[in-house]
Structure formats: structure tokens, C-alpha cells
Specification:
Elements: E1 7-10, H1 14-26, E2 34-38, H2 42-52, E3 55-58, E4 69-72, H3 79-86, E5 95-98, H4 105-109, E6 118-122, E7 132-138, H5 144-155, E8 158-162, H6 168-176, H7 178-195, H8 200-220, H9 225-231, H10 238-248, H11 251-280
Parallel strand pairs: 1-2, 1-4, 2-3, 4-5, 5-6, 7-8
Antiparallel strand pairs: 6-7
């Protein structure tokens, strides 16, 4: 049972905090069984303790003998140093979950004790509101029970999708980086509304509610996005004029390139780490 597990976060950045917030709100794990750590930022740990009432310790004080699920949430560039520092401390039974873009399960397995269960995870910051779209992929030594626990834990922060690890980079491009695309869109909606005389906060609320309603409709109906777009577009109407402007200025192409760019960077991170490891060895 997940309620009997102790979950620890190694790293306390934005993504980790979003997951901590969603997990605490879900109530699936007692707060005293959630441990948050980082290398040296005591101020950040004190802040998290005050906000979420969970246990906080510096990395060197992590009680590895207690941990059932260890979530790696540091910066991707720091993964090798982190794995080197824990590989002689982590229990064989501990499940390692990584939320780091571009870091493969194989890369982690090579640096952990033989047979260690590793699960690659890609949530997004909507975890804070329990609305994340989260993908997970199992490593070579991950059992069905390990995946069951991982899915139960991650379902507390939103929807969970089990995918082939080879598709994790494109998932990162769509969902991992996706909130930023939306915020970028909203920046321009808010600005344009304000230029036309709307209060910026009102323009923001109107835009966000409009997109929220459209997304909800798409999730609850069987029509494709293309069909839904056609349903709300009258010939020579205002929507058609707006869509023509998007096409004229490359809106669709820009969206596609944004997703591809994030996917490409996720793959590059993995390649850079592999190259660095070969040089080190």
C-alpha cells in the first residue's frame, strides 16, 4: 500500500515542489513519510517545511534506510554527481524515479547497483493543482508492483500515461514543456487585450477561461481538434479572420517547431551526458 511507503525527493526546485504540493493535497501518503532534500539550500528546505509540513533534511542527512521511493529532481546536468553520491547508500528495494528531461533509465542503471528499479517520469508543473499530464516508462529491473506504486503516486497529481521510453522525448516536447507554451500565448493575449482597452487582469481571465473551456470540450468529446475548429469557424466570420492571421504569420508552424525544439533538446541532453560519461571513463 502506498500509505505505508516513505517517499523522498532529492532536489527541491519548481518541479519537485509542484509534485510535493499535489502529493500532500492528495493525502495518499502521510506528511511525515514525505522527505524533501537538497544539497545545501537550508532556506529553501525551511520554506517547504513551513508550506507543506513535510520532513526536510540536507542530502547528506537523508535516511536512505527508510526510503521506498526516491524521486530524483535535481537539474539534469547534476545527475551523474547525484548518482555517484547515492549508489552506495540506496537500498536495493528502493525504487528510483527520475523527473529529469533527457536522462534515460539505461544511463541511470549503469551507475546504480545491479538490478536497481528505475522509472523515468515526465510530469509538468500543473502537478501543483493535481492536473499534470505525466508519462512514465519502466527500466529493465522494474516490477509490476513498482509500476503500480508509481502510477498510484503520480495519479495524485493528475493523469498518468505509461509509454515506451523511446517516445519520452516527444512527450517532453508536448507536455513537459507545454505549460510554457500556454503562458507564452497568454502573455500575448493579455497584452493585445490591454492595448484594446481591457484591464490586463480581465484579459488574462478571459483568455484563460476560454482556453480552459476549449480544452475541457476536447477532452469530453470524440471529435478531433481539426473538427472542433471547423465547428466553431463560420465562413468569412471573426474566427475565420483570426485563423487566417495565424496562418499568415506562421502560427501553426511555430507551434510545431516549439514541440520539436523541446524534443530535440531532450535528446541532446541525453547525448551530452553519454559523451561526458565516455570521456570520464
Amino acid at each position: 500500500m502506498l500509505s505505508n511507503k516513505t517517499v523522498a525527493f532529492l532536489g527541491a526546485g519548481n518541479m519537485a515542489e509542484a509534485m510535493i504540493s499535489g502529493t500532500v493535497q492528495s493525502g495518499k501518503i502521510p506528511n511525515d513519510q514525505i522527505i524533501v532534500s537538497n544539497r545545501s539550500n537550508k532556506e529553501k528546505l525551511q520554506e517547504i517545511n513551513a508550506k507543506y509540513d513535510v520532513r526536510t533534511v540536507l542530502k547528506d542527512d537523508l535516511p536512505f534506510e527508510e526510503i521506498d521511493i526516491l524521486i530524483l529532481a535535481m537539474k539534469p546536468k547534476d545527475i551523474d554527481k547525484a548518482l555517484d553520491s547515492i549508489n552506495h547508500l540506496v537500498k536495493r528495494e528502493t525504487v528510483i524515479m527520475s523527473v529529469l528531461a533527457g536522462i534515460t533509465t539505461a544511463h541511470m542503471e549503469e551507475q546504480l547497483p545491479a538490478g536497481q528499479s528505475v522509472i523515468r517520469v515526465m510530469p509538468n508543473t500543473s502537478s501543483m493543482l493535481k492536473e499534470s499530464a505525466t508519462a512514465i516508462s519502466a527500466g529493465r529491473f522494474t516490477s509490476e508492483d513498482d509500476m503500480k506504486d508509481a502510477k498510484e503516486l503520480l495519479s495524485s497529481i493528475g493523469e498518468v500515461y505509461v509509454i515506451d521510453e523511446g517516445k519520452m522525448d516527444i512527450f517532453t516536447g508536448i507536455a513537459g514543456s507545454g505549460p510554457a507554451y500556454f503562458y507564452y500565448l497568454m502573455e500575448h493575449i493579455e497584452k493585445t487585450g490591454a492595448e484594446a482597452g481591457l484591464d490586463p487582469k480581465l484579459a488574462r481571465k478571459i483568455g484563460a477561461q476560454t482556453i480552459f473551456g476549449a480544452a475541457k470540450m476536447m477532452l469530453e468529446r470524440e471529435e478531433t481538434p481539426s473538427q472542433l475548429r471547423k465547428n466553431v469557424t463560420s465562413p468569412n466570420g471573426t474566427t475565420a479572420a483570426g485563423l487566417d492571421a495565424l496562418a499568415q504569420f506562421g502560427g501553426g508552424k511555430a507551434i510545431s517547431e516549439a514541440v520539436k525544439g523541446a524534443e530535440k533538446r531532450s535528446k541532446e541532453i541525453s547525448s551530452e551526458l553519454q559523451s561526458r560519461q565516455l570521456v570520464t571513463n
